[in-house]
Design goal:
Blueprint (H helix, E strand, L loop, with lengths): L1 E4 L5 H9 L4 E5 L12 H9 L6 E6 L4 H11 L3 E4 L5 H10 L4 E7 L5 H5 L8 E5 L17 H10 L4 E3 L8 H8 L3 E4 L12 H18 L7
Parallel strand pairs: 1-2, 1-8, 2-3, 3-4, 4-5, 5-6, 6-7, 7-8
Helix pairs in contact: 3-4, 7-8
Length: 226
């Protein structure tokens, strides 16, 4: 079970997430919609530079132009990019030509069963998909705090050939159930791990990581002692 803590806005939160057992952190750069988690490329670069070993810094962007995305990847030094935009297959192919070793994750909002048909053309050009919840009322495409229909997500996991990461309203309280229902490759949380100041709460991160890994082992009938 891979775990990403998204919406990192401070170096200390990146370090904390790593020591709590997260596998990746998300740095939200390149806004087009509302979010409390956007940071500028210079702060993202600083966080990437000071990340501990064995944790992957992920650029999360709403930009859809391959050249603009490439510029951010180059400047920040991330190892993965998560696309929360309407970028095309051709744009992703262009991005991969520029950065052949980067991991590319394409976001899709689970708004109905038909989403799987929209995902199919991207299977050959991305490394993974991430399923999230759309909040049109507040003009948010991520970090909405809203849960979508996990039964659709479960079907997507079974029908696509790429790993599927589950996001959208995940918290320490519901991540175990989400894993049992959907059986995703990984889970991703942001707003559900915040403190009252909008930064990451250490106990929430610890509980999220523990419960995610614990329920993953239960789903796979594995023992933590082996």
């Amino acid at each position: 079970m891979r775990i990403k803590v998204c919406g990192i806005k401070r170096v200390e939160d990146a370090v904390m997430a790593a020591y709590c057992g997260a596998d990746a952190i998300g740095l939200v750069v390149g806004p087009k919609h509302n979010s409390d988690d956007f940071i500028d490329k210079h702060l993202a670069q600083k966080i990437v530079r000071e990340c501990p070993p064995y944790i992957s810094p992920v650029l999360v962007t709403e930009l859809d132009d391959a050249e603009e995305i490439s510029g951010l990847v180059h400047e920040t030094g991330v190892t993965s990019v998560q696309l929360h935009s309407d970028c095309t297959v051709d744009s992703i192919i262009s991005l991969r030509k520029t950065f052949p070793n980067i991991k590319i994750i394409k976001n899709f909002h689970v708004i109905g069963p038909g989403v799987i048909h929209a995902m199919k053309p991207f299977e050959s050009v991305v490394d993974a998909f991430i399923l999230d919840t759309l909040d049109l009322a507040n003009d948010k495409v991520g970090s909405t705090g809203l849960v979508h229909d996990w039964s659709i997500s479960r079907k997507i996991v079974k029908e696509v050939s790429r790993p599927v990461i589950l996001a959208g309203g995940l918290t320490p309280e519901n991540v175990g159930e989400a894993i049992r229902v959907v059986n995703p490759y990984g889970v991703d949380a942001s707003s559900g791990l915040k403190d009252s100041n909008g930064f990451k709460d250490e106990m929430k991160v610890i509980n999220f990581v523990h419960r995610a890994k614990n329920d993953f082992f239960k789903v796979r009938n594995l023992s933590l002692e082996n």
